[in-house]
Amino acid sequence: MLGFDPPPSFPDFTDCATGSAENDYIWLAVVHMGGRVRAESHIMPAFADVLTDAEIDRVVQYLHSLCAEPHWPRGNLNFPRAFITEKAFPENEVIYTMNSTPKEPGTVENRIDYEHRIGKRAQYEFGIPLVVQQQDPSGSWSCGLGDVNAAVKYAFFDSNKSGTIASAGAEVTMPTGKETKGIGEGVAIYEAFGMFDQALPRDGFIEIHAGFERPSDHDALPNSWYWRTAVGKTFKQNRWGRTWTPMVEIVTVKDLTDGAAAQWDLVPQMQISLSAFQHVLMDVGWQVPVNERDTRGSTLHVYILWDWFDGPLFSMWRAH
Predict the structure, then answer these.
(1) 27 close to 63: Cβ distance less than 8 angstroms
(2) pLDDT bucket at 38, cuts 50 / 70 / 90
(3) How many CB atoms lie within 10 A of CB 49?
(4) Residue 178, phi-psi category: left (phi > 0), alpha (psi -120 to 50), beta (remainder)
(5) Which superfamily does CATH assign the domain made up of 75-306 to?
(6) Planar angle of CA 314, 112, 84, nearest 5 degrees
(7) Which residues, at least 6 apart from 6, have a Cβ–Cβ distance to it below 8 Å?
(8) Closest Cα to residue 30, out of 277, 316, 282?
(9) Mind listing the pLDDT tens digit for each residue in 1-23?
(10) CB 221, CB 238: distance < 8 Å
(11) Where in the chain are the domains?
(12) Among residues 49, 65, 98, 254, which one has the fewest Cβ atoms lying within 10 Å of its Cβ?
């Protein structure tokens, strides 16, 4: 094993929460190109002309070995986030999302989701939507708080070797919306779900997210189940630069009532890294109904994601 004293640009890998949070790609880039490639300290020099790729990989794996607690899921299992399909990896993130359905009656939802990791494998989150909705084709609009949700999840299995991670969790959506104006469902909804993510060759991945929803009042809403799948692949600009991740989601929802047909949607999208450290990401996508198009319109999705555990929102944006 190479002897190696971690320079200032590296996290403290003995702090397992920090050392396990990042994809190896981040630190391989720093060793190859120096700290500046990730907007870190210039004190960290580039080693690409001194060490081979295999030796640099050994350096990063050695740093990971400094974590004395092996039960933290590795950051390599932290795959890109899709719009609707939840990923299994527990995260520390803030996500602003705008969802716009132009088909009358039009709707624009702006929401903030806050996610916070608990220990090695768990996470809690809160989602707060603000909805602007057209009341009728004449152009009357209303605005108000939508239905707020809270959720927890736990990663019960992970394998860095096979590129696999699986989680399960529960969620409650509270009827905080203005039901009189058609904002929100008007009842509490309880949800149980599971997630399975798998790495594919050449930076590809697949994420599967399935769950069951039970409302507090069956006269208002029926029970339902859903199945969501996201498939994508990450491309890296000039090997260590900006990442581009095209994805497509297949989304299925079915009410558990007699004669109810499942609704199918496709959501093609593109995620782009905005900051040099890649802790701020943007995703743009378009949700297209596959069936029942006469009653369901397409939806534009845009999000800005900030991984706040990695660093401040307005720092580490440009390589220098």
Answers:
(1) yes
(2) confident
(3) 7
(4) beta
(5) monomeric porin ompg (2.40.160.40)
(6) 110
(7) 12, 13, 63
(8) 277
(9) 344 455 545 555 566 776 666 78
(10) no
(11) 1-72, 75-306
(12) 49
Dump the DSSP string for 70-127.
TTSPPGGG-PPP-SSS--SS---EEEEEEEEE-SSSPEEEEEEEEEEEETTTEEEEEE
| Alpha-carbon gap, residue 239 to 82, rounded angstroms | 23
pLDDT band at 95 (very low <50, low <70, confident <90, very high): very high
What gap in Å lies between CA 119 and CA 155, rounded to an integer? 11
- Give the per-residue pLDDT at 21: 67
Separation between Cα atoms, residue 199 and residue 166, nearest integer Å: 12
Sequence-separated (6 or more) residues with CB below 8 Å from residue 139: none
What Rg value do the Cα atoms of the chain yield, rounded? 21
Residue range 177-230, pLDDT digits in tens: 887 777 888 999 999 999 999 999 999 999 999 999 999 999 889 999 999 999
> Exposed, middle or buried: residue 309 (CB in 10 Å: 0-12, 13-18, 19+)?
middle
User: In this structure, are residues 309 and 92 in contact, taking their beta carbons and an 8 Å threshold?
Assistant: yes
Q: Provide DSSP, the chain.
A: -------TTS--TTSHHHHTTS-HHHHHHHHHH-GGGGT--TTS---TTTS-HHHHHHHHHHHHHT-S-TTSPPGGG-PPP-SSS--SS---EEEEEEEEE-SSSPEEEEEEEEEEEETTTEEEEEEEEEEEEE-STT--EEEEE---EEEEEEEEEEETTTTEEEEEEEEEE---S-GGGT-S-SS-EEEEEEEEEEEETTTEEEEEEEEEEEES-TTT---EEEEEEEEEE-EETTTTS-EEEEEEEEEEEEE-STTPPPEEEEEEEEEEE-STTS-EEEEEEEEEESS-TTT---EEEEEEEE-TTTS-TTSS-S--
Question: Which phi and psi (to 5°) does residue 80 adopt?
Answer: -55, 145
Q: Which residue has the tokens 């500046």?
A: 36
